[in-house]
Each structure stands twice: as C-alpha cells, then as structure tokens.
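Chapter review: from sequence to fold.
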Amino acid sequence: MKRAILVCGVDEAGRGPLAGPVVAAAVILDPRRRVAGLADSKALPPQRREALAALIRERALAWAIGSCDVAEIDALNILQATMLAMRRAVAGLAVAPDEALVDGNRCPDLRCPARAIVRGDRDVPAISAASILAKTTRDALLVALDRAYPQYGFARHKGYGTPAHLAALARHGPCPEHRRSFAPVAQAELQF
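The token string follows.
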C-alpha cells in the first residue's frame, strides 16, 4: 500500500509589528483526527484561536514553531527573517513533509517542494492551522514582553504601530525588543 503524501501548511505572524519576533508555524494535519473550524487566525476571536491551537497541537501528525528575533529582523530585513523563520519551522517538524503549502506569494527555500498560495490561511486547512499556531505563539510572547516593558502596552496591540504604541514610543523611546530597521522606531530613537 502506498504511503500518503504528507503536506505541511506554513504561515507566519508578526511581519508588520514594530516590536517582537516574527513567528512561523508548520503543521501536518492528521486526516484521521480532524480539527473542525480552522480558518485564518485573524478572522477568529482570541478564545477560539486558543482552543483551536490546543486541538491542533494535540491532533496534528506534526507541528513546529520557528522564529527570528529582533536582531535577526534588523540584520536580514523582515522578508528574509520571515523566510528564515518558515525554514526553521519546517525543519523542526518531527516528520518530514513531502510538500509545503505556504501562505502568500513567496516560498522559502525548503528541502521539499513548496507552493505559495495567496489567501491560503483562509482556504487551506493546514495553512489555517499554521496561521493559528503562529499567531497564538506570537501573541503569548508579546503578553510576556508586556510584563517586562509595561509602558508600551504590548499585550493590547501585540507590537503593531497603533496610535497608543506610537505615543509610547515617542514618550519612552524604543526598548530592546523594538525593530530598529522599522521607520517609526528609528525616528523615535533619534529623539533619545
């Protein structure tokens, strides 16, 4: 009997924020242990995302997280750091995939064939699962950063350039978790 082709979904969270890591996830779903309700993580309320993340971790054939920290983002640029985080996630899978389906219009260089799928986080369950794991992982990291740097409000905005975050940057200057290669952070740093 021929072995089933193992396909992993890959997605990231945190390309746009001014602070914190970029996080990617890779997920190989188990067709015998389905997870109902998978969707683009941005379209799900936080409690539903967390519940689905727990089910994905429990039922997937394999899942892994990869990330790039602020220093890597600033050294490489956000696109290259995102591709590296995705490579790390796929490399971290306990089971090697035969193919990777990547959300968006670009693929990282992987050891397996890869296809980019625009809106894959909405349309492809394995990518939706990766989207959910990447977002919940990154959100938890930003909540932890909020405890270390409460003056910025990371738990509320997750590092995105909201008016409140920009006001905190102007008031306090950047912290070590801010991306110096991003213009609003670089401008705030000039003031301090």
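Two observations follow directly from the output. Residues 7-190 form a domain with the Nucleotidyltransferase; domain 5 fold (CATH 3.30.420.10). Residues 91 and 166 are 36 Å apart (CA to CA).
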